[in-house]
Amino acid sequence: MSNGPESTNVSSLGKGDSLHHQVLASFPLCDMTEEDLTQSPQFCKLLATLAQHVDRTGLTATLKTELDKAEQKLQSQRRHWLRSESLHRGLQEMIQDHCVRKHHTTFYETMEKCLLVVKCTRLLDPSSTTNQDQPFILGLNPQQVMELMPSEKNVLRMKQSLPRELEKHLKKSVGVSSPTTKNESEGLKNTKLSHLSAQLDKERKRAEILKETCQENTVLLQRQTQLYLSELTKCIQLLQSLILDHRLKIQTDLDRKKLDYFEGKCELVLQKIKTEMVGIQLEMYTPDSIAAHRKIREILESELKACQEEKQSVESKLASFEILGKEFVTLAEEYSRLRREIETKNWALKEFTQYKTK
Q1: Cα–Cα dist 187/106, whole Å
Q2: Are 148 and 121 in contact (CB under 8 A)?
Q3: Are residues 86 and 22 in the same domain?
């Protein structure tokens, strides 16, 4: 039973993409996208139902009405305060202007004393938020300060002349008169001035509406930027996949060409190395050195051949000796010992002979 009205309200807003657009339009300040609403349909329905009870800023009708009333009351109090403040500042400017010009008249003296006495009375008068038992400043009370007011006769004259003098001062301080207002009557000018606050309120509201529109446009621009970036990311990913597929197809031919190139380059380097080696040999070996090397080679080869022949003969003799057995080894060792003794005695005899000759 509880789902009947809710489904009816949601169906009245729309279905599918139209519902998403209406929800996004109803909550422009929320950072949401259609993808978020698509992934959360129940949340989308909740927002669609909630949109019928709140405005674009998220306020209910009752709260909006109370807020408007509070805003009107605030504006009324603000206008009242601005009116009093502008009047007070205008009076102070008038007093300062005549003090500078040294025009000491009874009117301005009376007005200055009245303002000063009222200001002091407010400072001495304790408010409801202060302690009533607090001692007065300099032992004075508001009644004593009020005794310093000018005479009633002068105050009455000042009040009678105040509107006229204040009007003159305001016209003089503004000092701007358009061609269209020169021929207007004083009543019409006063009427326009009375409607000036209302016009300012209209302009302020218009500025606020434009500010809200600007904020909504900013949020919309951010959402569109996010969508654009997401689509751009998808396009980049698709382009990367296409580039990868194309690269894999031509990778074999590219590798083969690279291999042929490196093989040719290696062959060229080897030929260059051989050329450098031949050049070094040509610089190092002259015809005379080559002829000498050839002669040395022939001599070494002949000596090597003679050594090899001697080796073969020794090996054949050694083989024939090994046939005789262990007795021949004993005789050979005895023969070697005798040979060493003979050589030793010959050396000693030679040395003795040389010593004897000396």
Answers
A1: 30
A2: no
A3: no
